[in-house]
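Input chain follows. Return structure tokens only.
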Amino acid sequence: MRERDLERYTTMVIKSHGGLALKFISPGCAGVPDRLVLMPGGKMCFMELKAPGRKPRPLQVWRIEQLRALGFKVYVVDGKEEIGGIINAL
């Protein structure tokens, strides 16, 4: 599965649970996660989506650690089977 296919699937599943999976682009701030996930009840997280077996680049790892240090939930996802568990964890 390619990363873009995982993004489409993730967006579809999040929407089916009443949420939004917004493409997160921050000009001038490299390495931000791919998606900002907003769920009913004010629950949110960031998702970095990767093709199966792929890992985040060093800058992405640094940015993920920075967001987690600020108290945000950030998930690195490389398979469809992970999405349901993340939704349940929110």
